[in-house]
Design a protein that fits this description.
With about 280 residues, this protein is mainly beta. It has helices spanning about 1-10, 15-20, 245-255, and strands at about 10-15, 20-25, 30, 40-45, 50-55, 55-65, 75-85, 95-100, 110-115, 125, 135-145, 145-150, 155-160, 180-185, 205-220, 260. Helix content is about 10%, strand content about 35%. Strands 1, 3, 4, 6, 11, 12, 13 and 15 form an eight-stranded antiparallel beta sheet that branches. Strand 8 and strand 9 form a beta hairpin. The radius of gyration is 18 Å and the shape is globular. The structure holds 2-acetamido-2-deoxy-beta-D-glucopyranose (NAG). 2-acetamido-2-deoxy-beta-D-glucopyranose binds near residues 100, 191 and 192. 2-acetamido-2-deoxy-beta-D-glucopyranose binds next to loops.
């Protein structure tokens, strides 16, 4: 019953902004292109802004194109993340993509993180192989009960595995999540650990979003759709439980060339590494 309900809800969502999203804060810092297809978020000295999906989802493929603030963007963070709630509640689950601005000509970094029941501290940082401020690029998350994979232009940059143990405390898989996008000032930590301050003479800082695409199980309250894993959808099927051979090659290249920080290698911070660090991304 749950399975068939979920199947019927597993539609690809690509409609207009109004169909999919609500503005969370600062409506006046937010604009859409004339054709309604591109959404721009502005940060100035007063505030940033953000939007979120109307729906929650549990498992699926979540994708969006972003073009990030260019030029002198140090201190500015553009985020695109999934979270079980609107806010930093103590038991939230969260999957983060954060884009950390930089001084003109210095490289952007992407930071990813995974929270389960309010606990994060699972940061990774990567460089990109393109300038994310020049064009739109696609950033995606694949989420099923076996793995969470973060992609940039379909290249897997981070793989976060489940160990199959229902009681583990690291793999978010029970609660549905909204998808959020926002821009804000984080010059207390983002760029070179907070050393680089936001240059407000360059404000407003604008990041743009387009091509929102969800192929996932849409949660319906009170009926618990999506409670059981099904294999009716490609993102839940065996092939999506691990990287394909060509994805493994891409992932190996990213691991060799683009990883700037990996919490699983930070023995100073974690004399005993968190349990999930022993799981192999190659399985
Ligand atoms: C910004 O550029 C500096 C200098 O190239 C680099 O060390 C740093 O990792 C870059 N990004 C951030 C977020 O600090």
């Amino acid at each position: 019953m749950a399975a068939s309900y979920c199947l019927s809800e597993a539609a690809v969502s690509q409609g207009s902004f109004q169909d999919n999203f609500n503005i969370m804060w600062s409506e006046n810092h937010f604009s859409t292109s004339d054709d309604g297809q591109i959404w721009s978020l502005a940060l100035d000295k007063n505030t940033g802004c953000g939007f979120q999906t109307k729906q929650r989802y549990r498992f699926g493929w979540f994708s969006m194109k972003l073009k990030l603030v260019g030029g002198d963007s140090a201190g500015v963070v553009t985020a695109y993340y999934m979270c079980t709630e609107n806010g930093a509640g103590p038991t939230r689950d969260e999957l983060d993509f954060e884009f950390l601005g930089n001084r003109t000509g210095q490289p952007y970094l992407i930071q990813t993180n995974v929270y389960k029941n309010g606990v994060g501290n699972r940061e990774m940082r990567h460089m990109l192989w393109f300038d994310p401020t020049e064009d739109f690029h696609t950033y995606s998350v694949l989420w099923n009960n076996h793995q969470i994979v973060f992609f940039a232009d379909r290249v897997p940059v981070r793989v976060y595995k489940n160990d199959g143990n229902a009681s583990n405390d690291f793999f978010p898989n029970e609660k549905p999540m909204y998808l959020f996008s926002s821009i804000w000032n984080a010059d207390d930590w983002a760029t070179r650990g907070g050393l680089e301050k936001t240059n407000w003479t360059k404000a407003p800082f604008v990041s743009s979003y387009t091509n929102f695409n969800v192929d996932g199980c849409q949660w319906e309250d009170p009926y618990p759709a999506c409670v059981s894993t099904t294999t009716d959808n490609w993102w839940d099927q065996y092939n999506a439980w691990h990287l394909s051979d060509s994805q493994k090659m891409d992932y190996a290249w990213v691991q060799r060339n683009l990883v700037v920080y990996d919490y699983c290698k930070d023995y100073e911070r974690f004399p005993t590494l968190p349990g999930e660090c022993s799981l192999s991304p190659w399985d």
